[in-house]
Amino acid sequence: MSVSDVSEKAPSSLGAMWRDKKTRAIIMQIVAVIAVLLFFGWLVNNTVSNIENLGIKVGFDFLWNTASYDINQTLIDYTANDTHFRAGLVGLLNTLLVAVCGVILATILGFSAGVARLSNNFVLSRLMQVYVEAVRNVPVLLQILLWYGIILHSFPRVKAAEPIIEGVIATNRGLFLPQPLPQDGFGWVWIAFFAGIIGSFFFRRYAKKALDSTGKQLPVLWASLGLIIGLPIIVYFLMGQPLGVSMPELKGFNYKGGFAIKPEFLALWLALSIYTGAFIAEIVRAGILSVSHGQSEAAHALGIKPSLTMRLVVVPQALRVIIPPLISQYLNLTKNSSLAIAIGYMDIVATLGGISLNQSGRALEIMLIILSVYLFLSLSISGVMNIYNERVKLVER
Amino acid sequence: MSEQTRDYVLGEHPELPAPDQRSGFVKWAMENLFSSIGNSVVTIVGLYILYLVIPPFIQWAIIDSVVLGAESRRECQAINPDGACWAFIYRRWDQFVYGFYPAPERWRVNLSFVFVAIIIAIALVEKLRAIKGAIWVALALVAACAILIVGGMFGLDRVPTNKFGGFMLTLIIGLTGIFASLPIGIVLALSRLSSLPIFSIFATIFIEFIRGVPLITLLFIASTLLSYFLPPGTNFDLLVRVLIMVTLFSAAYLAEVIRGGLAAIPRGQYEAADALGLSYWKSMRLIILPQALKISIPGIVSSFIGLFKDTTLVLIIGLLDPLGIGQAAIADVKWIALSNELYVFIALFFFVFCFSMSRYSLYLERKLHTGHKR
């Protein structure tokens, strides 16, 4: 007979109800719900009366008004005559652009630095330690401003800039690169590329089957590379090299043609990648160290080659430790990209939350949109992460 | 190696090379720097990078630099055009430390710095903490700091918070956030893991919301939107709003760190506490939390470091932290565009603080490590 059964017989007074664990839990939860509801009711009430008093219009109709400001970097067509909604969309795409580019570069930097920190080479591991410690302990906003300052003040002016290599010019107005211009027939190269990806997928399955049934190992990596890279190249030459190049040329005060990376994007991208890369390096290092030494010893004892030991034994186990914090670093990078506003990179906080907000005065609605966008990004990524975690979780007992 | 083993014939000894006779630095260098061709290349490239970076930096930052005797960037360049113009920091030093705190009242800030040093010493040094009443002294000093800096009592003039700035502001936001967010974070973590579903749901929603949005949007809400949510006519200080937001933000991150610690405590510990007949709060305070907090120390400290670094974001909503002061200063015609000097200087400040915090956490981890790890 449990304790609660005893007290259930005589919940005669309030005191007895309070002493009973179950009743107390219910009372406390009801009180908490009421308190939270009252608090939010108070907030809503205040907001409504404030809006009435100040005569502010509420609603999302302003999104369809003309934005009438320019954005210096757009992935989709945008002019000052477009709506606030489109400006917000441009901002969102810019956020995603810098987030995706940042994640790629940060992963490369982080994995190289993390592995290099574990190197036996004293100079290399110390250099990487200095990188990690120096970058992790300095605010990311400061690093963004520092990179922006370096590009603006220390890169050569447009007139004085010398090409680093043919067609690549670094100036304080940005980085200018040659731009490939696909001509008629280039679509076939894309088709060959995707066909290569699908083909390598099927080859992998075939190779796995062959391995399971005959024990024979097929060169999966080389075959895949051949299909994904080689096939498009062959098609490219078969089609008679349907690719032109637009070179950046100095015309007047700036370079025309080619592909220009704006200094704001460059600064933000470098700063975020280098900053997040340092955190990823620590995560990778911890992940590799977390694989018990016995695992690699066991692999050696089984006669598995060192390179295969790393790939088949150590890395899969390390990844289980690495992936969850890695994803949260990706999320941090995406959230940190909102600091773009400090250097005037037009992400969603700078377009919608900056100029659109000042023009329309709809602070409530705009903050709601921005918060929902970030929440959606974060929750969907962490949802994916949870699914992955379930799949790779060690099943114990 | 393997070939020699294979060639070994019973009764015959393989002729292995003599053991390495080298010792000291040469041996160490051969093993760690030049053990193979690839390794040697890496070493040489690494040293070359150091050679490319360090001497010019020292030349710029120390040898060619100008600290005294220059009133503007032009004068700096007249003395030495290639060096750093630290004169800029030197001339603006007071602003970097106190912001626009009125000069005759700055002793109050200085006294508070001393008090803060004493509080930190009490918090960190075990011998001081063990003295009876030390915690009350610390709390009294906290109150004294607040009264000293804000004023308006005991004959001290009130200093409006928009005069606060510089490192003083960083320390105010950072330390308030650190000390206020820890208890809130613990409560949030406990309620998220609570068996009472309502508490767990509320805590989860709060934590996930805060962690899902960037701090800068929360600061925007604090600076522009909060007046909508409060009764008409209320207008409370921007700094207080920022402090509340920073504290809540940091508390949500801390809650997740502490939740990890709580989850790592073996089930048996909870059961043992129950078996002893301890109430929920007593079992948490005496059994679970001491262990959970101990294993979460690295995470807690790194989230404190994150909070300290994030204090720079207040510049975006117009508070004058050192970076904000510096941005205003390099817009001044006299010191125009000295951005490298400014950022190196402020980076150094943050590095010193954050690096010492992370080293302290390593030390604490080692000290509290009671040997459950294999």
TrEMBL record, chain A:
Keywords: Amino-acid transport, Cell membrane, Membrane, Transmembrane, Transmembrane helix, Transport. It comes from the Bacteria. Residues 92-385 form the ABC transmembrane type-1 domain. It is a multi-pass membrane protein. It is found in: Cell inner membrane; Cell membrane. Pfam families: BPD_transp_1. This is Amino acid ABC transporter permease. It comes from OCS116 cluster bacterium.
